[in-house]
Specification:
alpha+beta; 3 helices; 5 strands; globular
Length: 116
């Protein structure tokens, strides 16, 4: 499946999805600094044309938790944006059908959600 809930069509599709996600994270990194609380949704396109929409929920609460745990905003966004994401597949043991991604440095797990 892809982040929008459709079926993935191989490695090429996953590479394009990853490019779109990276473009989204880079745009979100810029916008989050001025954003105060609630939900932040960003749509961005990568150079290859892959488009992706990402939503961050409860941004101020998660920023507070990161600060409380000693994780700077720069370290967080670097982990998401600066390395290649790993994974991009559904887990055979999972029931939700969500796609799991891991940051290249292994610090974070990303899980896709459907609109349902």
């Amino acid at each position: 499946q892809n982040a929008a809930g459709g079926k993935a069509s191989g490695a090429g599709h996953l590479a394009k999805l990853q490019e779109g996600m990276r473009a989204c994270f880079l745009e979100m990194r810029k916008r989050e600094r001025g954003h105060r609380g609630g939900r932040l949704t960003v749509t961005a396109a990568a150079e290859g044309g892959a488009r992706c929409t990402c939503t961050a929920h409860e941004t101020s609460q998660f920023a507070f938790l990161r600060a409380h745990w000693g994780l700077s905003d720069e370290a967080f966004w670097s982990s998401l944006c600066d390395g290649e994401l790993q994974g991009g597949a559904t887990s055979p043991s999972g029931k939700s059908g969500s796609i799991l991604w891991f940051t290249g440095d292994g610090h974070f797990v990303l899980k896709s959600l459907t609109g349902n």
